Amino acid sequence: MVYGVIYKITNTINSKKYYGQTTQLLKRWSRHRANARNNVDGPLYNAIRLYGLDNFKFEVVCSCDTLAELNEMEEKNISDDNTCSPNGYNIQKGGNKHEHSEETCEKIRKKLTGRKLQPLSQERKEKIRNALIGHKVSDETKIKLREASLNMSDETREKMRQAKLGKKQSPEQIEKVRQRMLTYWALKKSEKNIIS
Prior knowledge:
Order of helices and strands: EEHHEHHHHHH
CATH superfamily of the largest domain: GIY-YIG endonuclease
CATH topology of the largest domain: GIY-YIG endonuclease
Structural class: mainly alpha
Strand order of the largest sheet: 2-1-3
Largest sheet: 3 strands, antiparallel
CATH class of the largest domain: Alpha Beta
Number of helices: 8
Shape: globular
């Protein structure tokens, strides 16, 4: 079962790299882009602002079955490619060595308990949509994402199922799905007629 992936971000102008690990690849890439836009400090984000997002390549290096393997592979890639700043964009040696103390975890837990996320405004949704337009994912990354999805554990699938239980789709969502399915079946039918 795939637990997570190691990914690499490469500056196509100076070949400097950043290695990271995640269990939610697209969310992680989205977070990197948002941090760069929101002036978060750090070698990677400063470089994205300086060279422009179009000059960075995002790709999956490998998938890992356990957290221990994920930590080990991140550390190994950072070390082998010597990507700690100033040679690259990593600021730590990887392997999740920066874990919070129990006291800090408790403070975070108390602060977040009972907190509800506000629904995204239409303006915010539009900004997210525009940020994703034109974003290209390599064929290799698509294959690795597909494999990660196919090898998802039953436990993870159940968590995802539970998260969606009881949520109703809006009439607009239902109509979009209906239109997609009508198009899909119309294409299938036309393929069948061509073959016969």
